[in-house]
Here is the input.
Amino acid sequence: MSAHSLSDLRAVNSFAGLPAAFHTRLAPQPLNNPRLLRANADAARLIGLDPAVLDTPEFLSVFSGARPLPGGDTLAAVYSGHQFGVWAGQLGDGRAHLLGEVEGPEGPWELQLKGSGMTPYSRMGDGRAVLRSSVREYLASEAMHGLGVPTTRALALVVSDDPVMRETVETAAIVTRMSPSFVRFGSFEHWSSRRQPDQLRILADYVIDRYYPECREAQDDAASILNLLRAVTRRTARLMADWQAVGFCHGVMNTDNMSILGLTLDYGPYGFMDGFRLGHVCNHSDTEGRYSWNRQPSVALWNLYRLGGSLHALVPDVDGLRAVLDEYEPVFTRAFHERMAAKLGLAAWGPDDEPLLDDMLKLMDANQADFTLAWRRLADAVSGQRSVFEDLFIDRPAAAAWLDRLLARHAQDGRPEPEVAEAMNGVNPLYVLRNHLAEEAIRAAKAGDASEIDTLLKLLRNPYVEQPGHERYAGLPPDWAGSIEVSCSS
Ligand code: AMP
Ligand code: MG
Here is the structure.
């Protein structure tokens, strides 16, 4: 049964039921003359909404901020956080409004507007998001989902002519995001920094009861919270393995951008790598390289330590907290090795495979080989077309020598070549959301043409399957791609 109007969704807002200090109820500031640039039928199905509703005036009205979601309870949430390693104090939804939540066929989803105007947490900001960054968030959420990486989703993208001042004058847009929850590590840090353990307890109970019921230990609150930290630690570790495996750099791994559900949250100056560099930094504002590709797993652990530190107010047992956080490293390593073994075409990760992987990454780094194509073309090399892989390296003899080692390793597995190549193509994507592809879609969208968004999404929803006629999207980036700068300005 799907809902034929937004009222049929029977939205509620459980987060609104938390004490008043957790949020501020307020209406969004609607966009003037809003137009629905795109809406996502896949996301609509997740909340049990008939995709026909996406084309109605009611839909545009709600997701441009003009009218509340029927049944919902619109609010902005407060949180705090560490930004670039430094305590930033209170932050919060400075330009986002939680409209409410909907029970979908597979579980609950919160619906949140981003770019919907000022809130008490806007600090120096204007409460807006520009078209450019909204298109990037819309595309990235769906691209990550297509890759099989846990992520928030995007329901709608509404544009307007309202001017927004950034480095230049741009136009305002609102993207509607969906997530089972938008609670962040920083939501917990907020209450511990204020020394309000009662509020912290309320938040922990809310998160456990709604999202981690399996963590609840009757009569033992500290044990329940340790279980919660363990579950978040494990999910975050696996998320980092996912990011590393697809060459994704988040760009702003501040604790306020870390989801308590272990999914990718807050797409700003992210990037999928073109030419591989171990220390690749995608965010132009990250001058120290804190959030470079190879540091992401250790930064996530640093962030988990901040979460664990916050929970200390409820769990006096420091050794217990530390023991849980110590599980991060082995869970990450196992998940990373599993993904890398699959990418290399190995039946399973073996004790001697570390040098093989390390040397591949070093070789790619030294040659700035294209991350996506280098992995993808390994399957061609297995099928006898070694040159397409070697073509990606300036030092061809080194690439050829490494390939010999890989093929010798495959011989130990003894699996039939076609089977290995097919399995590799199932884990090494052909299409990723490269910066220049997003940029082309943004340029077209600015001119009112959303067709490039559609084309990209068609490919990115099925990134492992070659789609004829779309060679351009699977090729090396053009020279101008190197000059694209993405920064915190959004
Ligand atoms: P970010 O690192 O982009 O996720 O943002 C950090 C904090 O700044 C969050 O509290 C955001 O809500 C807030 N913020 C970012 N941009 C704006 C803006 N244009 N207006 C108001 N708040 C903003
Ligand atoms: Mg954020």
